[in-house]
Design a protein that fits this description.
- This protein has about 475 residues and is α/β, with parallel strands linked by helices.
- The protein has a single domain, classed as TIM Barrel, CATH 3.20.20.
- Helix 6 runs parallel beside helix 8 and helix 12 packs across helix 16.
- Bound molecules: 4-nitrophenyl beta-D-glucopyranoside (PNW).
- The site of 4-nitrophenyl beta-D-glucopyranoside has 14 residues, from loops.
Length: about 475
């Protein structure tokens, strides 16, 4: 109701064309503002900062039965009645498999310096292991050539949740064999793409696919394992990452960098005092103990093992060595803040659960907390001496409305991005080594179990016609990129 009212009011006051993209495009920057901007370095990002955008294979590609692709667990899950909002599947998604040229053109128009995409494992190895399918890799070859011709640097994720169904049938991430199969696949892709891709990420958000898919059952494969099972799946995920790092190093061209993209819980001190900041650092290490912390330290924290007791994962010393393989960079996906306060418990911190009134975006889990993007990289750099960090995802879902004359005035997303980028600017100003930022997402896409109703794109997609329309947030982002800062 309130949304409808404010849109109507907006149109009455300003007319629906007042903020038309063309008007924004041609919006002249007064000379005084330009001078002020260049004079005040405080609003600029470092030269060469990589402005990007991200997508993932199953969320955008479609073409699930083409060129020899095998089924993934998301095909199975999304086709199971009752598992996804509205029964939505990724069968067509953004049809990016056929429209990648148009999508690279959108990126070019935005001025993107870089683009993060993921390779679909079941396109390359339809059965997960065994004989590769050359036609699967061909798609990425075509797409990469298009990107490079547009002057956009590719960042490649190897696993963004679309596990080959054939591997799930043999136990999936509950089986250690899947970690080995991943390393084999990762080495193969790195060998074939590292002439053009210089940055590979092994995994996207291990914490999401394990916890939501194997513990909560809300994502593929829809399991609700008991704690010991979940902890073992988690162990196989970090092991796959570590073996993947080794395989990529063994097969990629020299100079190829390897990392991961993790949504480490972004611990934010409730009040920025030394004791709450120290508590946030402890919380960052412990709340991420099964994922980023074990990857960075090569061992589970004492508190993690003690907390899980008999349900703790089973592992060997060789596993731990692989898991702790040094990475060249860390990617952090940042959305929701996790507030922390100091307390007198042995752990020295407590999580602050936000009240029901805490503001969120359309996705109820997506609490608005711009400081998350300041503290997450700052704490990671501080705890593990990381020298190269990327914000591999940040963005927001909105109840976007396409006006009859073809505009999307997503002021909530613009507000969200502006506030998060302001905090990111704060981090880089303090020399936190964040080298780039990837907005999630380039375009509306298949938002997993939430289907197509939850839109994260800065381009609106009409899923009937596949027409892409830049939203107001795309115009905002293009201005940020052009200025290399927040004007
Ligand atoms: C990430 N949570 O997922 C994924 O990497 C993307 O594929 C996804 O589309 C995007 O963020 C937006 O959701 C998340 O519940 C899913 O906290 C769920 C959560 C966080 C991230």
């Amino acid at each position: 109701m309130q949304n409808r009212f404010s849109r109507r009011t907006f149109a009455r006051l300003f007319g629906s064309a007042a903020l038309a993209p063309t008007a924004l495009t041609n919006l002249a920057i007064p000379a005084s503002a330009q001078t002020a901007q260049s004079a005040s370095a405080t609003r600029s990002f470092p030269q060469g900062f990589l402005w990007g955008s991200a997508t993932a294979s199953y969320q955008v590609e479609g073409a699930v039965n083409e060129d020899g692709r095998g089924p993934s667990i998301w095909d199975t899950f999304s086709h199971t009645p009752g598992k996804t909002n509205n029964g939505d599947t990724g069968d067509v998604a953004d049809d990016h498999y056929h429209r990648y040229k148009e999508d690279v053109a959108l990126m070019k128009a935005l001025g993107l310096k870089t683009y993060r995409f993921s390779v679909a494992w079941p396109r390359v190895f339809p059965q997960g292991t065994g004989t590769p399918n050359p036609k699967g890799l061909d798609f990425y070859n075509r797409m990469l050539d298009e990107l490079l011709a547009a002057g956009i640097e590719p960042y490649c994720t190897l696993f963004h949740w679309d596990l080959p169904q054939a591997l799930e049938d043999k136990g999936g991430w509950q089986s250690r064999d899947t970690s080995e199969a991943f390393a084999n696949y990762a080495g193969y892709v790195a060998q074939h793409l590292s002439d053009r891709v210089k940055h590979f990420m092994t995994m996207n958000e291990m914490s999401s696919f394990v916890d939501i898919g194997y513990r909560d059952g809300r994502h593929a494969p829809g399991l609700k394992l008991p704690p010991a099972g979940v902890n073992q799946v988690r162990h196989h995920a970090v092991l796959a990452h570590g073996l993947g790092v080794q395989a990529i190093r063994a097969h990629a061209k020299p100079g190829t960098k390897v990392g991961l993209a993790e949504n480490a819980s972004a611990c934010v001190p409730v009040i920025e005092t030394p004791e709450h900041i120290a508590a946030a650092a402890k919380a960052y290490r412990e709340t991420n103990a099964g994922y980023l912390t074990v990857v960075m330290e090569g061992k589970y924290t004492d508190a993690y093992l003690a907390h899980h007791g008999a349900a703790a994962p089973k592992f060997t010393a060789a596993d731990m060595k692989a898991i702790g393989s040094p990475v060249d960079f860390v990617g952090l996906n940042v959305y929701t803040p996790s507030y922390v306060r100091a307390d007198s418990s042995p752990a020295g911190f407590a999580m602050v659960h936000p009240p029901a009134s805490y503001p969120h975006m359309m996705s109820k889990w997506l609490h608005v907390g711009p400081e998350a993007i300041y503290w997450s990289p700052k704490l990671a750099a501080q705890l593990w001496n990381v020298k190269e960090i990327y914000i591999t995802e940040n963005g927001a879902s909105s109840e976007d409305v396409l006006t009859p004359d073809g505009h999307v005035y997503d002021s909530d997303r613009v507000m969200y991005l502006r506030n998060y980028l302001t905090q990111l600017h704060r981090a880089v100003s303090e020399n936190v080594p964040v080298r780039g930022y990837f907005c999630w997402s380039l375009m509306d896409n298949y938002e997993w179990a939430d289907g197509y109703a939850y839109r994260f794109g800065i381009h609106y997609v009409d899923f009937k016609t596949q027409k892409r329309t830049p939203k107001m947030s795309a115009h905002f982002y293009r201005e940020v990129i052009a200025r290399n800062g927040l004007a």
